[in-house]
């Protein structure tokens, strides 16, 4: 392909991916905001100005997530970049579930350490105060990030697909978990069953009860999917009270 047609192709893919991420955000956050209104009427009453800010920052983040993802998706299709594969038998069957865990764990590790770093006072004011402006957060805050914070999150999966083989279906699952947990963790109430949240497994995974405490207390519960790093580093302060009141 000539250089002249390369640029429009990558730009077109970046715009298409931005639109996909944007529609995904509006549909998922919209759905869970609607569910919140049904199961907790009035829970977010009076928060309309905050919700408008959350949507504005989130839509900007959609472009920051969509551009690198769109360029990598184009490179995968047109140039054979990345280690994304289509044939499930290309690697041993156990790599399918293991690759899901590896991707989530590496994303979680990156998130934990960059998130802790962004809680240093000088950087917090610049890059992370936007996310904590949601008091309390709502389902619309799922992608409410300052562009610097959005950039740190946007590069993770596009970088990993160059290094670690992943089936296209498993990659879809990674993105699904990322989307659902990003929204439900900010809803201000627990959607997962009490039996799971308070179970042995629940002690290692992050749901709204855990992330809500981060938004209340700031300097604890930094993780994204797993409580592993919070536990190892002594920053886990347990789960928020609203779970027991629910
Ligand atoms: Zn948050
Ligand atoms: Zn934070």
UniProtKB/TrEMBL annotation:
GO terms for cellular component: membrane. It comes from the Bacteria. InterPro entries: Fatty_acid_hydroxylase, Sterol_Desaturase_Related. Keywords: Membrane, Transmembrane, Transmembrane helix. It is found in: Membrane. The chain crosses the membrane at residues 6-34, 55-74, 94-113, 150-183. One of its GO terms (biological process) is lipid biosynthetic process. Residues 101-235 form the Fatty acid hydroxylase domain. GO terms for molecular function: iron ion binding; oxidoreductase activity. Its main location: membrane. This is Sterol desaturase. It comes from Novosphingobium colocasiae. The lineage of its organism: Bacteria, Pseudomonadati, Pseudomonadota, Alphaproteobacteria, Sphingomonadales.
